[in-house]
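Q: Sequence in, structure out?
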Amino acid sequence: MNLQSLFNMQRQLDQHIEENHQLQSENLATRKILALLVEMGELANETRCFKFWSVKPPAEQHVILEEFVDGVHFLLSLGIECDFDSISALPVQTPKQSATEQFLHVFSLVVQFQESRTEERYIEMFSAYMTLADVLGFTAAAIEKAYMSKNEVNFQRQHQGY
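A: Exactly. Output:
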């Protein structure tokens, strides 16, 4: 996955949003962290990995991938906001035993990042999120393609007054 290309695309979207909403002088990191946590909750809900009480199957893979990519948008945006957007690769992590455990691990890392916004924590958080992609069965190529598609949708939404 070409992280620099994705950072560049996200930077353009962020600039567009910040200009349209007059947010250029605001630090949006805290709001982006909360947005990431919310998107991760939506992703977990679509996977249904924690719903031991239900027999309903998870959403279709394309729906889960779209929710996953929403999180990628906020991770990239946080990297830009915190000046951590020069990274070109993420270290590989060993996944936890289940999707539920991997979700909890990523949630924990996001909260740790909120408490101490270091580049090391950012990389660890982003890497753990990408490990979640492995657990969910997504390839880097599929994520990149879905990101590009959703980025286009996000620009269209901004032009339509979303």
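The chain has a mean pLDDT of 94.
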